[in-house]
Specification:
CATH topology of the largest domain in chain A: Rossmann fold
Largest sheet of chain A: 4 strands, parallel
Helix content of chain A: 40-55%
Number of strands of chain A: 11
Strand order of the largest sheet of chain A: 2-1-3-4
CATH superfamily of the largest domain in chain A: NAD(P)-binding Rossmann-like Domain
Oligomer: homodimer
Shape of chain A: globular
Chain lengths: 367, 367
């Protein structure tokens, strides 16, 4: 099957990567971008051509522009390409649909709109890093609305297939609720915690450890983009934020009880246990169930070559490293590397690495 | 100067490591632990002896037991060793002091108590991984109270010096406020977020990414220990939690506004900007100011030896890796490794690594 010719509006990483994937599969792709240099860079990378198509021939339009511009660009595409299915790759769906519903005079036209959302592993801006295989085996959510036509849904399914992604069909509200919970809420929790640091004295921050860094990492992301995402998903985010608000009230009551009656910390324990249970529900790597890897801690000198030597010797030992994290000592020129390995391999690896002169130990519970 | 003979109560990682450090410096250390096997293991590692000292000769007692037991064990030590300075290594100070104040009949005795808190890089349980150099160049906070005697303070400063840690003196309230802000509050924010996941459907969790994993990582820690820590620092934690509660109210109002009036997201932007500003206040590695490293993303096959080859070749290129993070593809057998390097070295490294066949790219802004 074919969806050719395709028009791609927005030649950033996601758009240009779709262009590369479709071009590889023999589809004709026409690139459009407000920045003509973006479109030209994407074309140079094999994402398609900057030539204009014959509008009436276009079968599929993929809109890959920032969240705030989506509704307008989609409406424009429905007008400009009267025979095309139009989809988008936005990370929030309901608001866009609502605005289309209000702004598009002839609602029958909306039969040709079917939203979608590829969960690309890393969303970086700009076409320079585009890759045809960005979506291979990634989840790509298709979000038909109640007026989406069968032909349009089929075209978007074909798009997902051509990009070799894994198709998941959710309705618009289900999708927005899912990303509100597992992506947008964690982002705002990180922002709340990081925001509190603006009122902390520098001396106090000297006591900061890896935990604080982990919790606040994503709060360092681009506020411009997140302003659009949060604005677009306000509807689905509000119940999540209010649920956290209630839970925070409970937690504060529990801590107040602990303060008033020393030893009465069972309420606090309940919250901590719930948190632990929540972490265990997050799927592990490769989509598998969470697993208890053994954690090994190695001291590594902070110099070129040290990590290379370390991993070369781990490789020689035939052990696959499942996960990795580094913590730098604030003062000494060393880092502590935590390696996750299969539990059955841990003891042997510790012995081998010690023989080779590494400071290595099995980690127990972590505070 | 000497603090010998020393009694160490609690032969876990922190206690046994103090024993090793003091023994190396020629101090006589006597180990006590509720678990006699813990004490023997620690002695076997060079942390001291399990023999009883002459109680009246003891100059310094270091109490390294779980938070809930601290006050009682300190009070016991003040009784048992009538001429000794008594310190502890607990992560919360005011509650313990308060309980001592209430429980110790003869308050003059409290002259001999001076609290302290070594910020060991990784707090793992059990003596097996004890190391004499655990505290080298780490911050070790000394928290005298208003009745602490000069001789006691001098003895604890000597302890810190013998362990080669960096002495910081804070009063009890300052210390507890600092750890509430930079350690205990982030922990509870992580717990709140992770707790919310207990109500999320498994299909929704399939959309989870690295951001969620980072924010919830520390919520996977031991609830037993954190129950004690939160209970002990309830007083300092409450204002932090209430500040977050107010900020969350503001955030919810801002998101409500964004929902009611699409486009009115300036309130949301304010919160996002505050979060970004907060992340920039966290000190970088080696206690230096935060720095903008260049971020490179490399695709690595998920097989033994791949990381070894990668780091060996980075080492040959003479580039020091400042930080490292790994993200596993949920389905494909590859990982994406993010490397932070000095910005001036990034372009050269990318070129070199590409020549050697690695898929490597410079990351832009991250969502």
């Amino acid at each position: 099957m074919t969806v050719s010719p395709v028009v791609l509006i927005g030649a950033g990483l996601v758009g240009a990567s779709i262009g590369c994937a479709l071009t590889e599969e023999g589809q004709q792709v026409h690139l459009r971008d407000l920045s003509s240099s973006h479109a030209r860079v994407a074309a140079g990378l094999g994402a398609g051509t900057v030539d204009e198509p014959v509008a009436a021939d276009v079968r599929l339009v993929v809109v890959a522009v920032p969240p705030a511009a989506l509704a307008e660009v989609i409406a424009g595409a429905l007008r400009d390409y009267p025979n095309a299915t139009v989809t988008d790759v936005g990370s929030v769906k309901a608001g866009v649909l609502h605005r289309l519903w209000e702004s598009v005079g002839d609602r029958a036209v909306l039969e040709r709109y079917v939203g979608s959302h590829p969960m690309a592993g890393s969303q970086r801006t700009g076409p320079v890093t585009a890759r045809a295989d960005l979506f291979v085996d990634r989840t790509w959510v298709i979000t038909p609305h109640r007026r989406s036509g069968e032909a349009g849904i089929a075209a978007v399914r074909e798009l997902v297939k051509l990009c070799r992604a894994r198709e998941v069909v959710l309705d618009v509200e289900e999708h927005d609720a899912a990303v509100a919970r597992v992506s947008h809420l964690p982002h705002l929790m990180s922002v709340l915690m990081a925001g509190r640091l603006t009122e902390v004295e520098p001396e106090q921050l000297q006591l900061a450890g890896q935990g604080l860094r982990d919790v606040t990492r994503i709060a360092g992301s681009d506020p411009e983009l997140w302003q659009q995402i949060v604005g677009a998903n306000a509807h689905a985010l509000l119940p999540e934020l209010r649920a956290v608000q209630l839970r925070l009230d409970d937690l504060i009551s529990a801590v107040e009880t602990a303060q008033q009656t020393p030893g009465r910390t069972d309420g606090v324990r309940t919250e901590l246990e719930r948190g632990l249970a929540g972490t265990r529900r997050i799927p592990g790597k490769h989509g598998s169930a969470p697993r208890d890897d053994a954690q090994l801690v190695v001291e590594i000198p902070d110099s070129p070559g040290a990590l290379g030597r370390l991993f070369a010797e781990i490789g020689e030992a035939g052990v696959n490293v499942e996960d990795i994290a580094i913590e730098h000592d604030q003062v000494r020129e060393v880092g502590y590397l935590t390696l996750a390995v299969q539990p059955t391999l841990a003891d042997g690896l510790v012995a081998t690495m010690r023989d080779r002169g590494w400071e290595i130990r099995q980690a127990r519970s972590e505070v």
